[in-house]
Amino acid sequence: MNIQEFIENFAAQFDDTDVADFTAETKFKQLDEWSSLTALSVIAMVDDEYDVIIKGNDIINSETIQDLYDVVVKLHG
Amino acid sequence: MENNPFSLDGKTILVTGASSGIGQTTAISCAKMGANVVITGRDQGRLQTTADLSGNAVTQIVADLTVQADMENLLAALPPLDGAVLCAGNSTTLPLQFGSREKFDEMFDVNFFAPVELLRLMYKKKILQKGSSVVLLASIGGTHSFMPGNGVYGASKAALNSVMKYAAREYASRKIRVNSICPGMVDTPLIHRGTITEEQLAEDAKRYPLGRYGKPEDIANGAIYLLSDASSWLTGHDLVIDGGFSI
Protein backbone atom coordinates (compact mmCIF):
# COMPACT_ATOMS: atom_id res chain seq x y z
CA MET A 1 0.00 0.00 0.00
CA ASN A 2 1.36 3.41 -0.94
CA ILE A 3 -0.09 6.90 -1.11
CA GLN A 4 0.38 7.29 -4.86
CA GLU A 5 -1.63 4.16 -5.61
CA PHE A 6 -4.26 5.27 -3.11
CA ILE A 7 -4.58 8.65 -4.82
CA GLU A 8 -5.10 6.91 -8.16
CA ASN A 9 -7.76 4.62 -6.73
CA PHE A 10 -9.39 7.60 -5.07
CA ALA A 11 -9.34 9.67 -8.28
CA ALA A 12 -10.95 6.79 -10.19
CA GLN A 13 -14.18 7.42 -8.26
CA PHE A 14 -14.56 10.79 -9.99
CA ASP A 15 -15.92 11.28 -13.49
CA ASP A 16 -15.16 14.89 -14.40
CA THR A 17 -12.25 15.99 -12.22
CA ASP A 18 -8.84 15.73 -13.92
CA VAL A 19 -6.72 12.96 -12.37
CA ALA A 20 -3.78 15.36 -12.36
CA ASP A 21 -5.71 17.57 -9.94
CA PHE A 22 -5.49 14.96 -7.18
CA THR A 23 -2.62 15.07 -4.68
CA ALA A 24 -2.23 13.90 -1.10
CA GLU A 25 -3.19 17.40 0.00
CA THR A 26 -6.38 17.64 -2.09
CA LYS A 27 -9.32 18.75 0.05
CA PHE A 28 -11.63 16.35 -1.70
CA LYS A 29 -14.94 17.44 -0.20
CA GLN A 30 -14.39 20.89 -1.73
CA LEU A 31 -14.36 19.45 -5.26
CA ASP A 32 -17.43 20.42 -7.31
CA GLU A 33 -18.07 16.80 -8.18
CA TRP A 34 -18.08 15.50 -4.60
CA SER A 35 -21.39 13.89 -3.60
CA SER A 36 -22.83 11.31 -1.23
CA LEU A 37 -22.56 8.74 -4.02
CA THR A 38 -18.85 9.51 -4.40
CA ALA A 39 -18.50 8.92 -0.67
CA LEU A 40 -20.18 5.51 -1.04
CA SER A 41 -17.87 4.70 -3.96
CA VAL A 42 -14.80 5.60 -1.91
CA ILE A 43 -16.00 3.38 0.95
CA ALA A 44 -16.60 0.51 -1.49
CA MET A 45 -13.23 1.09 -3.23
CA VAL A 46 -11.39 0.87 0.11
CA ASP A 47 -13.20 -2.39 0.92
CA ASP A 48 -12.45 -3.74 -2.55
CA GLU A 49 -8.80 -2.72 -2.86
CA TYR A 50 -7.59 -2.80 0.76
CA ASP A 51 -10.03 -5.11 2.52
CA VAL A 52 -10.69 -2.38 5.05
CA ILE A 53 -14.14 -1.23 6.18
CA ILE A 54 -14.23 2.53 6.71
CA LYS A 55 -17.30 4.41 7.85
CA GLY A 56 -19.04 7.55 6.70
CA ASN A 57 -17.58 9.39 9.68
CA ASP A 58 -14.03 8.51 8.59
CA ILE A 59 -14.74 10.47 5.45
CA ILE A 60 -16.44 13.33 7.31
CA ASN A 61 -13.43 13.58 9.63
CA SER A 62 -10.86 13.53 6.82
CA GLU A 63 -10.00 16.80 5.13
CA THR A 64 -7.40 15.62 2.64
CA ILE A 65 -6.76 12.39 0.77
CA GLN A 66 -3.72 11.92 3.01
CA ASP A 67 -5.98 12.07 6.09
CA LEU A 68 -8.16 9.27 4.71
CA TYR A 69 -5.12 7.26 3.61
CA ASP A 70 -3.82 7.44 7.18
CA VAL A 71 -7.12 6.01 8.45
CA VAL A 72 -6.94 3.16 5.95
CA VAL A 73 -3.32 2.39 6.86
CA LYS A 74 -4.20 2.36 10.56
CA LEU A 75 -7.20 0.05 10.07
CA HIS A 76 -5.25 -2.19 7.71
CA GLY A 77 -2.72 -2.79 10.51
CA MET B 1 -62.07 -7.21 22.44
CA GLU B 2 -64.89 -9.20 20.84
CA ASN B 3 -65.40 -9.25 17.09
CA ASN B 4 -62.05 -7.63 16.46
CA PRO B 5 -61.12 -8.58 12.89
CA PHE B 6 -57.47 -7.75 13.61
CA SER B 7 -57.18 -10.23 16.48
CA LEU B 8 -54.64 -13.03 16.21
CA ASP B 9 -56.22 -14.90 19.08
CA GLY B 10 -55.53 -18.62 18.84
CA LYS B 11 -53.36 -18.32 15.75
CA THR B 12 -49.87 -19.84 15.71
CA ILE B 13 -47.47 -17.48 13.96
CA LEU B 14 -43.81 -17.93 13.01
CA VAL B 15 -41.59 -14.83 12.98
CA THR B 16 -38.05 -15.07 11.56
CA GLY B 17 -35.38 -12.50 12.28
CA ALA B 18 -37.03 -12.08 15.66
CA SER B 19 -33.88 -11.22 17.58
CA SER B 20 -33.86 -7.57 16.54
CA GLY B 21 -35.46 -4.77 14.57
CA ILE B 22 -38.71 -5.27 12.69
CA GLY B 23 -38.77 -9.01 13.44
CA GLN B 24 -38.45 -8.48 17.16
CA THR B 25 -41.21 -5.88 17.30
CA THR B 26 -43.45 -7.97 15.04
CA ALA B 27 -43.06 -10.98 17.34
CA ILE B 28 -43.92 -8.91 20.40
CA SER B 29 -46.91 -7.28 18.66
CA CYS B 30 -48.26 -10.63 17.46
CA ALA B 31 -48.05 -12.01 21.00
CA LYS B 32 -49.91 -8.96 22.31
CA MET B 33 -52.64 -9.55 19.71
CA GLY B 34 -53.17 -13.03 21.14
CA ALA B 35 -51.02 -15.22 18.89
CA ASN B 36 -48.95 -18.20 19.96
CA VAL B 37 -45.66 -17.03 18.55
CA VAL B 38 -42.74 -19.14 17.37
CA ILE B 39 -39.62 -17.02 17.05
CA THR B 40 -36.39 -17.78 15.31
CA GLY B 41 -33.11 -15.93 14.92
CA ARG B 42 -29.39 -16.51 15.08
CA ASP B 43 -28.70 -15.15 18.56
CA GLN B 44 -30.05 -17.08 21.54
CA GLY B 45 -29.54 -14.26 24.02
CA ARG B 46 -31.38 -11.71 21.93
CA LEU B 47 -34.16 -14.21 21.15
CA GLN B 48 -34.62 -14.59 24.90
CA THR B 49 -34.96 -10.80 25.16
CA THR B 50 -37.72 -10.91 22.53
CA ALA B 51 -39.45 -13.70 24.46
CA ASP B 52 -39.20 -11.73 27.72
CA LEU B 53 -40.66 -8.62 26.08
CA SER B 54 -43.52 -10.62 24.55
CA GLY B 55 -45.01 -11.35 27.95
CA ASN B 56 -46.62 -14.48 26.58
CA ALA B 57 -45.74 -18.10 25.93
CA VAL B 58 -43.26 -17.95 23.09
CA THR B 59 -41.45 -20.87 21.47
CA GLN B 60 -37.82 -20.12 20.58
CA ILE B 61 -35.83 -21.93 17.90
CA VAL B 62 -32.28 -20.72 17.27
CA ALA B 63 -31.44 -20.96 13.56
CA ASP B 64 -29.32 -19.33 10.88
CA LEU B 65 -31.54 -19.73 7.83
CA THR B 66 -28.57 -19.62 5.47
CA VAL B 67 -27.31 -22.87 7.04
CA GLN B 68 -29.07 -25.94 5.66
CA ALA B 69 -28.85 -27.98 8.86
CA ASP B 70 -30.42 -25.13 10.82
CA MET B 71 -33.19 -24.84 8.22
CA GLU B 72 -33.91 -28.56 8.55
CA ASN B 73 -33.94 -28.37 12.35
CA LEU B 74 -36.35 -25.45 12.24
CA LEU B 75 -38.72 -27.20 9.83
CA ALA B 76 -38.67 -30.34 11.98
CA ALA B 77 -39.50 -28.32 15.10
CA LEU B 78 -42.28 -26.15 13.68
CA PRO B 79 -45.88 -26.74 14.76
CA PRO B 80 -48.73 -26.36 12.22
CA LEU B 81 -48.89 -22.65 11.40
CA ASP B 82 -51.67 -20.16 10.78
CA GLY B 83 -49.21 -17.55 9.66
CA ALA B 84 -45.58 -16.59 9.16
CA VAL B 85 -43.73 -13.30 8.93
CA LEU B 86 -40.34 -13.72 7.27
CA CYS B 87 -38.28 -10.77 8.50
CA ALA B 88 -34.73 -12.16 8.56
CA GLY B 89 -32.64 -10.09 6.19
CA ASN B 90 -29.67 -7.86 5.72
CA SER B 91 -28.79 -4.73 3.81
CA THR B 92 -25.82 -3.14 2.13
CA THR B 93 -25.11 0.24 0.59
CA LEU B 94 -22.92 -0.26 -2.44
CA PRO B 95 -22.67 1.53 -5.79
CA LEU B 96 -23.39 -0.94 -8.61
CA GLN B 97 -19.87 -0.79 -10.02
CA PHE B 98 -18.76 -2.56 -6.81
CA GLY B 99 -21.63 -5.07 -6.90
CA SER B 100 -19.54 -8.15 -7.65
CA ARG B 101 -21.05 -11.61 -7.93
CA GLU B 102 -19.77 -12.23 -4.40
CA LYS B 103 -21.61 -9.19 -3.02
CA PHE B 104 -24.82 -10.14 -4.84
CA ASP B 105 -24.53 -13.72 -3.58
CA GLU B 106 -24.11 -12.58 0.02
CA MET B 107 -27.22 -10.42 -0.21
CA PHE B 108 -29.34 -12.92 -2.14
CA ASP B 109 -28.44 -15.80 0.22
CA VAL B 110 -29.93 -13.94 3.17
CA ASN B 111 -32.68 -11.82 1.58
CA PHE B 112 -33.90 -14.11 -1.18
CA PHE B 113 -32.79 -17.75 -1.09
CA ALA B 114 -33.30 -18.28 2.66
CA PRO B 115 -36.88 -16.97 2.89
CA VAL B 116 -37.88 -18.52 -0.46
CA GLU B 117 -36.56 -21.93 0.62
CA LEU B 118 -38.31 -21.66 3.98
CA LEU B 119 -41.56 -20.66 2.29
CA ARG B 120 -41.28 -23.49 -0.24
CA LEU B 121 -40.69 -26.16 2.38
CA MET B 122 -43.32 -24.88 4.81
CA TYR B 123 -45.81 -25.20 1.96
CA LYS B 124 -44.54 -28.53 0.64
CA LYS B 125 -44.48 -30.10 4.10
CA LYS B 126 -47.92 -28.62 4.82
CA ILE B 127 -46.66 -26.83 7.90
CA LEU B 128 -48.63 -23.85 6.57
CA GLN B 129 -52.21 -24.88 7.20
CA LYS B 130 -55.08 -24.21 4.83
CA GLY B 131 -56.20 -20.61 5.15
CA SER B 132 -52.90 -19.44 6.62
CA SER B 133 -51.23 -16.13 5.78
CA VAL B 134 -47.60 -15.46 4.88
CA VAL B 135 -45.97 -12.03 5.05
CA LEU B 136 -42.60 -11.43 3.40
CA LEU B 137 -40.56 -8.40 4.43
CA ALA B 138 -39.47 -6.76 1.19
CA SER B 139 -38.68 -3.07 0.65
CA ILE B 140 -39.68 -0.11 -1.45
CA GLY B 141 -36.09 -0.45 -2.74
CA GLY B 142 -36.02 -2.36 -6.01
CA THR B 143 -39.73 -1.98 -6.83
CA HIS B 144 -40.92 1.49 -5.82
CA SER B 145 -37.68 3.36 -5.18
CA PHE B 146 -34.27 3.22 -6.84
CA MET B 147 -31.87 5.25 -4.71
CA PRO B 148 -28.19 5.22 -5.76
CA GLY B 149 -26.22 2.69 -3.71
CA ASN B 150 -29.20 0.42 -3.01
CA GLY B 151 -29.06 -1.73 -6.14
CA VAL B 152 -27.68 -4.96 -4.69
CA TYR B 153 -30.09 -4.82 -1.77
CA GLY B 154 -33.04 -3.64 -3.86
CA ALA B 155 -32.58 -6.36 -6.46
CA SER B 156 -32.75 -9.05 -3.75
CA LYS B 157 -35.99 -7.55 -2.40
CA ALA B 158 -37.49 -7.13 -5.88
CA ALA B 159 -36.82 -10.81 -6.55
CA LEU B 160 -38.54 -11.67 -3.27
CA ASN B 161 -41.55 -9.56 -4.25
CA SER B 162 -41.75 -11.42 -7.53
CA VAL B 163 -41.81 -14.83 -5.84
CA MET B 164 -44.44 -13.49 -3.44
CA LYS B 165 -46.82 -12.90 -6.33
CA TYR B 166 -46.25 -16.31 -7.90
CA ALA B 167 -46.69 -17.99 -4.52
CA ALA B 168 -49.93 -16.05 -3.99
CA ARG B 169 -51.29 -17.49 -7.24
CA GLU B 170 -50.13 -21.06 -6.62
CA TYR B 171 -50.87 -21.29 -2.90
CA ALA B 172 -54.40 -19.92 -3.34
CA SER B 173 -55.45 -23.51 -4.05
CA ARG B 174 -55.05 -24.09 -0.31
CA LYS B 175 -56.49 -20.65 0.49
CA ILE B 176 -53.04 -19.67 1.72
CA ARG B 177 -52.47 -15.94 1.27
CA VAL B 178 -49.03 -14.51 0.49
CA ASN B 179 -48.31 -10.79 0.71
CA SER B 180 -45.32 -8.58 1.33
CA ILE B 181 -44.62 -5.36 3.14
CA CYS B 182 -42.42 -2.79 1.42
CA PRO B 183 -41.14 -0.42 4.09
CA GLY B 184 -39.23 2.77 3.55
CA MET B 185 -36.33 3.42 5.90
CA VAL B 186 -37.15 2.05 9.34
CA ASP B 187 -35.15 2.99 12.40
CA THR B 188 -33.52 -0.35 13.32
CA PRO B 189 -29.92 -1.39 14.13
CA LEU B 190 -29.52 -2.26 10.42
CA ILE B 191 -29.35 1.38 9.32
CA HIS B 192 -26.91 2.47 12.06
CA ARG B 193 -23.82 0.67 10.84
CA GLY B 194 -21.90 3.77 9.88
CA THR B 195 -21.67 3.60 6.08
CA ILE B 196 -24.26 6.36 6.14
CA THR B 197 -23.51 8.85 8.94
CA GLU B 198 -26.08 9.77 11.58
CA GLU B 199 -26.15 13.31 10.13
CA GLN B 200 -26.92 11.96 6.66
CA LEU B 201 -29.68 9.75 8.09
CA ALA B 202 -31.24 12.72 9.90
CA GLU B 203 -31.14 14.73 6.67
CA ASP B 204 -32.61 11.84 4.67
CA ALA B 205 -35.48 11.42 7.13
CA LYS B 206 -36.61 14.96 6.28
CA ARG B 207 -37.34 13.82 2.73
CA TYR B 208 -40.21 11.68 3.98
CA PRO B 209 -43.55 13.49 3.57
CA LEU B 210 -44.63 12.38 7.04
CA GLY B 211 -41.42 13.86 8.40
CA ARG B 212 -39.67 10.85 9.89
CA TYR B 213 -38.31 7.37 9.30
CA GLY B 214 -40.55 4.45 10.17
CA LYS B 215 -40.65 2.79 13.56
CA PRO B 216 -40.68 -1.02 13.79
CA GLU B 217 -44.23 -0.74 15.17
CA ASP B 218 -45.39 0.88 11.90
CA ILE B 219 -44.36 -2.28 10.06
CA ALA B 220 -45.51 -4.73 12.75
CA ASN B 221 -49.01 -3.26 12.61
CA GLY B 222 -49.10 -3.84 8.86
CA ALA B 223 -48.03 -7.43 9.43
CA ILE B 224 -50.84 -7.91 11.98
CA TYR B 225 -53.36 -6.72 9.39
CA LEU B 226 -51.99 -9.12 6.77
CA LEU B 227 -51.95 -12.03 9.22
CA SER B 228 -55.43 -11.39 10.58
CA ASP B 229 -58.86 -12.24 9.22
CA ALA B 230 -59.26 -8.52 8.42
CA SER B 231 -57.31 -9.15 5.21
CA SER B 232 -59.04 -12.42 4.24
CA TRP B 233 -59.54 -11.35 0.62
CA LEU B 234 -56.07 -9.86 0.14
CA THR B 235 -53.30 -11.83 -1.52
CA GLY B 236 -50.38 -11.09 -3.83
CA HIS B 237 -50.18 -7.53 -2.56
CA ASP B 238 -47.07 -5.52 -1.77
CA LEU B 239 -48.11 -3.18 1.01
CA VAL B 240 -46.04 -0.01 0.89
CA ILE B 241 -45.50 1.52 4.34
CA ASP B 242 -43.10 4.39 3.81
CA GLY B 243 -44.41 7.65 5.22
CA GLY B 244 -45.26 8.74 1.69
CA PHE B 245 -41.67 8.55 0.40
CA SER B 246 -42.45 6.74 -2.86
CA ILE B 247 -45.39 8.92 -3.86
Key features?
heterodimer; A: 77 residues; mainly alpha; Non-ribosomal Peptide Synthetase Peptidyl Carrier Protein, Chain A; 4 helices; 0% strand; globular; B: 247 residues; alpha/beta; Rossmann fold; seven-stranded parallel β-sheet; 7 helices; 17% strand
Describe the protein's architecture and organization.
The complex is a heterodimer of chains A (77) and B (247). Chain A has one domain: Non-ribosomal Peptide Synthetase Peptidyl Carrier Protein, Chain A. The longest helix of chain A has 15 residues, at 36-50. Chain A has four helices and no strands. Chain A is globular and about 30 Å long. Chain A has helices at residues 3-11, 36-50, 56-60, 65-76. The model of chain A has no long low-confidence stretch (mean pLDDT 94). Chain A is mainly alpha-helical. The model of chain B has no long low-confidence stretch (mean pLDDT 96). Chain B is globular and about 45 Å long. In chain B, helix 1 packs across helix 7 and helix 4 packs parallel to helix 5. Chain B contains seven helices and seven strands; from the N terminus they run E-H-E-H-E-H-E-H-E-H-E-H-H-E. Chain B has a seven-stranded parallel sheet with strand order 3-2-1-4-5-6-7, with helices on both faces. Chain B is an alpha/beta fold. Helix content of chain B is 40%, strand content 17%. Chain B has one domain (12-241): NAD(P)-binding Rossmann-like Domain (Rossmann fold, 3-Layer(aba) Sandwich), CATH 3.40.50.720. Chain A binds chain B through residues 36-37, 40-41, 43-45, 47-48, 55-57, 60, and chain B through 93-95, 97-98, 148-149, 193-197, 199-200.
